Amino acid sequence: MVKKRVTFTIDEDLDKKIHHLQADFISKSSKSWSYSSVLSMIINEGIRALSQKTKNVREENVAKKHTN
């Protein structure tokens, strides 16, 4: 996977939550977890969840059209 450097601002609360998750991952595994790797995992999971949700909404809309 090709990585790209991106700069953005983030809410302090979100930053704290990401750091807490990072600390959790580090304490529960022998693997090293960078902030970037945790953030990438969160983004990937969020995109996957939103994609599934979007797919479900589309399927519901198609089903509604067929019942009308």
Characteristic key phrases:
0% strand, elongated, 74% helix, 2 helices, mainly alpha
Write the layout of secondary structure elements.
Blueprint: H1 12-28, H2 35-67
What can you see in these coordinates?
The protein is mainly α and 68 residues long. It has a domain at 34-68. The chain is 74% helix and 0% strand. It contains two helices and no strands. It has helices at residues 12-28, 35-67. The longest helix is centred in the C-terminal third of the chain and has 33 residues, at 35-67. It is elongated. 0% of the residues are buried.
What value does the average pLDDT take? 91
Based on DSSP secondary structure assignment, what is the total number of beta strands? 0
Structural class: mainly alpha
Major sheet summary line:
none
Multimeric organization: single chain
Q: Please bin the fraction of helical residues.
A: over 70%
Summarize it.
With 68 residues, this protein is an all-alpha fold.
